[in-house]
Design goal:
Layout lengths: L2 H19 L7 H7 L3 E5 L9 H11 L3 E5 L12 H12 L4 E10 L5 H21 L3 E5 L9 H21 L3 E5 L8 H10 L5 E5 L11 H8 L3 E7 L9 H10 L5 E4 L8 H20 L1
Parallel strand pairs: 1-2, 1-8, 2-3, 3-4, 4-5, 5-6, 6-7, 7-8
Helix pairs in contact: 2-10, 3-10, 5-6, 6-7, 7-8, 9-10
Length: 295
């Protein structure tokens, strides 16, 4: 069965099953597919960190999630140390599934003052780019990731931006987007992210919104969203959509109004006993939010 046919069959089966199992939470997959191009997937931190790759893919298939950002140092072990044959096996596992390998969640960071550390992180990012190219992903997530005591913020911002330009140019050669997670003390402030991207002007460098409390500071969510909306990449990170004090409905509505066509990826913080049921619940909540955003 072709991948697209399998995806349609899987979504229809899951929608029917969940409608009968959860009568109080209607599945809205049809309306989401008709109008919104946003897709829902998983960051393996934390719900997927202890799953091997077959279990990880199977869990997303069963719960109706369409994509996965695999994180470094997790049990599924998608790492630069993989051989050419092992990389081909990872690619085939995803090609044989309706679940897409969205990209890689790295810990590469570009704020370190020591030149050797900065160079090492740039080279590590290049290894991740090659890894995702071989495995069939489309991008690599990196981090700013902090300001340093005694170093002017402007200097750190410029350094991060220039490093991003270097890895973005390299990533473009391999068809891999560089996705900069809004992360770290000080560097998770959206005006700072905008300043970084004023330097990181390579079109292959993109913002990965991370749903932080800092998003609500200053003039609020919509203002901060608008600061960087022209630089969004293909990934957004959210936490559990129905148990946080973050205004996720407003966020989803903003992305919908911005005609966002990338991935909304769940980066969960809790520890449910049944991960498949928890993933299914989050997918349904996402679909409800998208339906409401569509009016």
């Amino acid at each position: 069965m072709r991948n697209i046919d399998r995806r349609i069959f899987l979504q229809a089966s899951l929608a029917a099953g969940m409608a009968s199992a959860m009568q109080t939470v209607p599945v809205l997959a049809s309306s989401v597919a008709a109008e919104s191009k946003m897709k829902f997937g998983l960051v393996t931190y934390l719900w997927g960190k202890d799953m091997d790759l077959p279990t990880l893919i199977s869990s997303c298939e069963k719960s109706g999630l369409g994509g996965i950002e695999v994180r470094t140092e997790h049990r599924h072990a998608v790492e630069p140390s993989l051989s050419k044959l092992q990389r081909a096996e990872v690619r085939k596992r995803f090609e044989d599934s309706p679940v897409e390998l969205v990209g890689y969640g790295s810990n590469a960071q570009f704020h370190d003052a020591e030149p050797e550390k900065l160079k090492a992180n740039i080279e590590l990012t290049k290894q991740y780019i090659q890894l995702m190219h071989d495995c069939g992903g489309s991008g690599v997530k990196v981090k700013p990731n902090s300001f340093l005591k005694g170093v002017e913020h402007e200097k750190t911002i410029e350094q991060i931006g220039k490093a991003l330009n270097e890895v973005a140019a390299y990533g473009q050669e391999y068809g891999q987007q560089i996705r900069v997670e809004v992360h770290g003390p000080g560097t998770s402030e959206l005006p700072v992210i905008k300043a970084i991207f004023d330097v990181a002007d390579h079109p292959n460098a993109a913002v990965c919104w991370n749903s932080n409390g800092e998003d609500l500071k200053g003039e609020g969510l919509e203002h901060n969203f608008n600061l960087v909306k022209s630089r969004f990449g293909k990934t957004v990170h959210v936490r559990e959509l129905n148990i946080d004090d973050y205004p996720y409905q407003q966020l989803i509505s903003l992305f919908h109004a911005n005609k966002y066509d990338g991935w909304i990826l769940l980066e969960a913080r809790t520890e449910p006993a049944d991960k498949v049921a928890a993933l299914t619940e989050q997918r349904i909540v996402f679909e409800q939010m998208v339906s409401k955003a569509q009016g």
